[in-house]
Amino acid sequence: MPPTAQRPVGEYTTDDRERWAAEAPKSQERTPFERDRARILHSSALRRLGAKTQVLGPASDDFVRTRLTHTLEVAQVGRELGKALGCDPDVVDTACLAHDLGHPPFGHNGERALAEVSAGIGGFEGNAQTLRLLTRLEPKVADPATGRPVGLNLTRASLDASTKYPWSALDAPLRPDGTPSAKFGVYADDAEVFAWLRVGAPERVRCLEAQVMDLADDISYSVHDVEDAVVGGRLELDVLADPAARDRVVAQVMDWYGSVVDEDGLQAAMRRLPATDTWVSGFDGSRRALAALKDMTSQLIGRFCDAAIDATREVYGSGPLTRYAAELVVPAPTLAEILVLKGLAVTYVMAPREQEPLYRRQRELIADLVAVLSDRAPVALEPPFAADWLAAGDDSGRLRVVVDQVASLTDVSAAEWHARLVRPSRL
């Protein structure tokens, strides 16, 4: 969208710096956006990401990325990408650090399990849970007027930048095949704060900082998941020389991510990537090979970021770009290359694991925890969630509190809670 008449291009306004609950004036040594970033860094939710699954479980080996290491990598990529476009780097950094805070134990597998058990109360979505955590669950600020917890009480600009899907499940846009998107960014009972943070925003349009965060996320996990897969012996990059393997990757991309890029575009990307100077062939696990692989990931990140910066600048010029003054432009060939890397991770890591008994047991563990905590609440809940449960007005509200509790757990603590609360009852 072109720059609007209401907002000077490159500037952040008083409304952007406003917080949901008024706070006493602070010293001027730090900007409001620097304070937002610090609040995320010091949050318990960020610390818990260190024991939550990214693609492989945190305990699978010492090299594999966790949600926390992935988040730090996204923040580094997003900060530099946003800064190159003129966004406030702390707003983008905050959004990147926050983007996965709402993910439950066991990654997307746990998200799927919680979505099933909460289907009757509006479902579960990691991005909607992130907003709930930032504005309600993470203990930092209480509204001085009402005493109500307001989470980290971030500025409007930072909250909006952290909202990857600015719509509810009922308002989700249609995908190319005509079905509603399964992704959404707000639950019904968080609608009030969502409406506040979206004041002045075009309906279902992400601000530029959120788009930068989303691309940084895509770049980071597409490149780094492939790196982890190669080091872990699950993938040889020479596989792209095999036409049958390329066809399998295309099929997985279409199945997991839809037809954002057509088959010809994906096949062309699979020819371009191995032709780059830094593409790794014949990985043997040596330090020299590890260094070459690391150089490849670094060069790919730079390749994708530079392409987006150049394409965006071509449309919007060289001045600073913020909020709704511009949209991030990602060239189709770049998007295709990112999707190919995602497809490699899906084909050789993520899709095969779906058939493993471990992943079924993880979903069962989550469902068991929701059932037993619903039965034993509020006693079995941690004190903050017990208070929420007692304050809830109906069974739907109480179930949402139980889901909040389970979503807050790490992979390790979820297993420990299950051993303590569920297994003894089965003896």
Could you please describe the fold and organization of this structure?
By secondary structure, the chain is mainly α. 56% of the residues lie in helices and 0% in strands. The protein has three domains: 14-197, Hypothetical protein af1432, CATH 1.10.3210; 208-353, no CATH class; 357-426, no CATH class. It is globular, with a radius of gyration of 22 Å. The N and C termini lie far apart (61 Å). Mean pLDDT is 91; it is low at 1-7 and 56-63.
**Poorly predicted runs:** 1-7, 56-63
Overall tally of structural domains: 3
Q: Please identify the structural class as seen in this structure.
A: mainly alpha
Describe the sheet with the most strands. none
Would you tell me the overall average pLDDT? 91
Global morphology: globular
Over the alpha carbons, how many angstroms does the gyration radius reach?
22 Å
What would you say about this model in short?
By secondary structure, this protein is mostly helical.
Map the helices and strands.
Elements: H1 14-17, H2 32-41, H3 44-48, H4 67-85, H5 89-98, H6 107-117, H7 126-137, H8 156-161, H9 191-197, H10 208-231, H11 243-257, H12 263-272, H13 287-316, H14 332-353, H15 357-376, H16 383-391, H17 395-408, H18 411-421
Helix pairs in contact: 2-5, 4-5, 4-10, 4-13, 5-10, 6-15, 10-13, 10-14, 11-12, 11-14, 12-14, 15-17, 15-18, 16-17
